[in-house]
């Protein structure tokens, strides 16, 4: 729980900082892009070389603008719009999207639990969590491998693990994204959720993927955990509280013995 507090405070601080910078930066970029467009129009029919320089500048400016958009979205801690969500359907839809963006040498599998409980979450945010995790999985398998997305009903009935997870014991829907990729060293794993931590080359990674995942899952009263082994692969498990719907009988939780001592 202390770790979680530390993490949220860190994210809040980074969020405020990036929010301010991204905002100013965005305004300056608008000037650059506007001037380039004007220059383009004024020149009419420039030589191929001049055209190439202008296109390159425009391309760079547009990509920076896309990055600042992501930073702004990150710092804004977008308000959630929770709905009753069928995670199986969301996973199925996301996998359809994914099929277009993964190489032929990555095999994508989904293992969807029957009778899966529903969750109360923002479907767009949850979809972006799944995409973030899947893109990381893909990036960890440059030579191909298996990407599996699995759903499961999960009873977290042991008070001790629940406290460890920073959630109350209860019923959760688990979504696990696994890859057979490079895995993480303990050092990388310790920092993986930190905003701006990335091991990817400049332009490929922002280091915001997992911290966004973390922020969203915590906002949804859930939990996220990484299991990783070097050279074998990584599994990221996301737990979201079950949504109790009208007509559902609350299930009595088996009483777990609290551990005698901390
Ligand atoms: P980014 O993907 O932009 O680098 P993330 O916050 O999503 O940012 O991830 C941070 C770092 O965690 C990555 O750069 C990578 O080193 C590591 N990582 C995340 N997911 C995986 C994975 N599935 N396999 C191996 N390493 C991973």
From TrEMBL:
Domain of life: Bacteria
TM spans (from-to): none
Domain Histidine kinase: 20-244
Name of the protein this chain belongs to: histidine kinase
Lineage: Bacteria, Pseudomonadati, Pseudomonadota, Alphaproteobacteria, Hyphomicrobiales
Residues of the full protein shown: 446 to 707 of 827
